[in-house]
Amino acid sequence: MSTPLGTRSDTGGGHLRDTVYGILRDELMNGQIKFGQRLTEPKVSGRFGISRTPAREALAMLCSDGLLRREDIGFSPVRPSIPMIRDLYELRITLELAGIQRVMDNPELRHDHELLRLERDRWLALRDDPPAQEPGFVVVDEEFHIALLSASGNGELVRTLASINARIRHVRMYDFMVNNRVEVTIEEHLAILEAVLAEDLPRALVLLHRHIGESLDVVLDRVTRAIVAMSMASEQE
Question: The dihedral of CA 30, 36, 39, 42: what is its sign?
């Protein structure tokens, strides 16, 4: 049972919403909330000792993430589709590699080095002071991939990648729940940036492909484990 959050004098509505959202998100991703289990505003507000407004907002955020779906009454966990995850990752890889490939294929094109140097500075700062190992790091990771593709100069590729990112964010969160995954990601991003800035695009292409492929392996492993855990828990009910 969670400590009632509403009793904390230093918590405002937004903080309560974000705290409840973070707790429920982690429970959903770790399989603690079972398939078929129903979450409602009254249950969530009662559990955390808060009003229904932050509870409603937290549940809406989880729906937006793709972790919950709205039912006639309340919300229930979404079972991730492994085939769809693979298909969307395949499209993601195609889009991101196309950004580097188009510059390789056209001698008149060149990456935006100023943008990439700024991105490198950001990731060097993250290496010096790594953030916490938590699912929300996915947003920081997405910003890197958007910046890298933006530097290739094709806005349509960037817009399509942003759309794909939104559809896989809820499963990509699993990527950053593994020990040292944040640190590994930082080092891999810096290696990709250095290769592009050095205009060693064949190497950058290989590094980027490997980086996204390893992310897929981690995500599928974590998602599969969560599905199994949630299914077993449901059968024991």
Answer: negative
